[in-house]
Design goal:
It contains 15 helices and 19 strands. It is α/β, with parallel strands linked by helices and about 450 residues long. Among the domains are: about 140 residues, Methylthiotransferase, N-terminal domain (Rossmann fold), CATH 3.40.50.12160; about 90 residues, Transcription Regulator spoIIAA (2-Layer Sandwich); about 55 residues, OB fold (Dihydrolipoamide Acetyltransferase, E2P). The chain has a six-stranded parallel β-sheet with strand order 2-1-3-4-5-6, with helices on both faces. The chain has a five-stranded mixed barrel with strand order 15-16-17-19-18. Strands 7-10-11 form a three-stranded parallel β-sheet, sandwiched between helices. Helix 14 runs parallel beside helix 15. The N and C termini lie far apart (about 50 Å). It binds S-adenosyl-L-homocysteine, iron/sulfur cluster and FE3-S4 cluster. The site of iron/sulfur cluster has 10 residues, from helix 8. FE3-S4 cluster binds next to helix 1, helix 3 and helix 8.
């Protein structure tokens, strides 16, 4: 196994969109080191598990996957072929050497701030025949150390793209591991982001989702060294030829300032979809979670956004069964959901994360109680989601077509509200934005009729 040429890398990503973005950057690093990317795990000489630490179940998944991979590694070794295994992402950062203690088939453990080191770490693991760990937080902008994505790689990734503009979190919600796994909040400089967006546009990307664990706290510096807000950054990116749509996630309610709210009314490229996690409808629980905002402030923010952008789709994250949550407090969450009316939402049962402040609270909610609350909340959200989609029927919306649909002869894309929409059509539609009259709802998505295709 002396040469890297023709070796294949497979990356399996869990967790949030930032992990999806990081997976692409890791692929770029490995392609730069002579590897070829494969979509088939069985073909790979190198498998990278890009892990998520957010809930206990996510972590268990990593260890069961590693158990299976250890068997593949053994089987390949018997055929004289090597399989290298890397654990990246938030579990790598949180557990470090513990991963190698639990699973000695792992060759490299690498944290989210050190992906540029991957080829060197793999080489060292191979030469020293000893697992390597790098979970440093270097005091530099890691993005600048990563190679620029190569043209063909970007092209094959489609017409929508993620672009990380901010990483880390200083909020320290008492249930959450992110401040520990991703470190302090850091914003990338404007010039770097604009350059990356221009490169994406040049390769056919038409919609960019700006990413950050706290993206609306963005405060990167511009070319003159002045701190720039997220709306100002979005206005810069919106000017790039070819970029027709912008989105951002995930936002924290306390950083939802008037300038950002107004951008929803003023910036046509900014899509009418807002993901604004609230977690709970109880002020007592919000305080215990250290969310730094109250229910009425959240409701006021939603009201203001709806005023400047009527019809905007609002989505959220909820945790039920936070330690000490009473039935009455859970009912306050249900009341908030009824009041807001969400287009979609992610709902989670509280998962105890060792090392976080909430893990120390003694009154944990019994599992069956939490499960019951989760089901009740999910039923209500599903009702609202269905109502939102039903409300689209008969409307005409612009769809950006991204890929082949689920059925033959169908092409699928997204509405401005982030709903999946399918129409009868062929691959020439991909990358185009066209008006579609919505005809019906099928399993969480919309089906419609194409009205006209823009000139190329
Ligand atoms: N930075 C984002 C996303 C954080 S993780 C934000 O602040 O919203 C995504 C979601 O996972 C969170 O919004 C929360 O709802 C959920 N989550 C985080 N930690 C959790 C835990 N310990 N148990 C259950 N859900 C959790
Ligand atoms: Fe976690 Fe809270 Fe930071 Fe979101 S804001 S990443 S939930 S600590
Ligand atoms: Fe998971 Fe890390 Fe994202 S814990 S949600 S992969 S920031």
């Amino acid at each position: 196994m002396s040469t890297h040429k023709s070796q294949k890398v497979f990356i399996k990503s869990y967790g949030c969109q930032m992990n999806v973005y990081d997976a692409q950057r890791m692929a770029d690093v490995m392609v730069g080191a002579g590897y070829e990317e494969t979509q088939t795990q069985g073909d790979a000489d190198l498998v990278i598990l890009n892990t998520c630490d957010i809930r206990e179940r996510a972590v268990e998944k990593v260890y069961s996957e590693l158990g299976r991979m250890r068997e593949s590694k053994k089987a390949r070794a018997e055929n004289g072929r090597e399989l290298q295994i890397v654990v990246a992402g938030c579990v790598a950062q949180a557990e470090g050497a513990e991963i190698i203690r639990r699973q000695n088939a792992v060759d490299v453990v690498v944290g989210p701030q050190s992906y540029q080191e991957l080829p060197a770490l793999l080489e060292r693991a191979r030469l020293k025949e000893k697992a390597q760990i790098d979970t440093e937080f270097p005091p530099v902008d890691k993005f600048d150390l990563l190679p620029k994505a190569s043209g063909p790689a970007i092209r094959s990734r489609g017409v929508t793209a993620f672009l990380t503009v901010q990483e880390g979190c200083d909020k320290f919600c008492t249930f959450c591991v992110v401040p520990y796994t991703r470190g302090a909040e850091v914003s990338r400089p404007v010039a770097k982001i604009v350059a990356e967006a221009e490169q994406l546009a040049a390769h056919g990307v038409r919609e960019i989702s700006l990413l950050g664990q706290n993206v609306n706290a963005y405060h990167g510096v511009d070319e003159r060294g002045r701190a720039v807000s997220l709306p100002t950054l979005m206005r810069r990116i919106a000017k790039i030829e070819g970029i027709e749509r912008l989105r951002y996630m995930t936002s924290h309610p306390v950083d939802m300032d008037d300038e950002l709210i107004e951008a929803h009314g003023e910036l046509p490229e900014l899509m009418p979809f807002l993901h604004l996690p609230v977690q709970s409808g109880s002020d007592r629980v919000l305080a215990a979670m250290n969310r730094k905002h109250r229910v009425d402030a959240y409701l006021r923010t939603i009201e203001k956004v709806r005023k400047v952008r009527p019809g905007i789709a609002v989505s959220s994250d909820f945790i039920v069964g936070f330690p000490g949550e009473t039935d009455a407090e859970f009912e306050e969450t249900m009341a908030l959901v009824r009041e807001v009316g969400f287009a979609s939402a992610y709902t989670f049962s509280y998962s105890l994360r060792p090392g976080t402040p909430a893990a120390e609270i003694s009154e944990q909610v019994p599992e069956d109680v939490a499960r019951e609350r989760l089901h009740a909340l999910q039923a209500l959200i599903l009702q609202q989601q269905t109502a939102f989609l039903d409300g689209m029927v008969g409307q005409t919306v612009d769809v950006l077509f991204e890929r082949a649909g689920r059925h033959a002869g169908q092409i699928a894309g997204k509405s401005p509200y982030l709903s999946a929409v399918a129409v009868a059509g062929d691959a020439s539609l991909i990358g185009k934005i066209a008006p579609v009259r919505i005809a019906r709802v099928t399993a969480n998505s919309l089906v419609g009729d194409l009205l006209a295709v823009e000139a190329a």
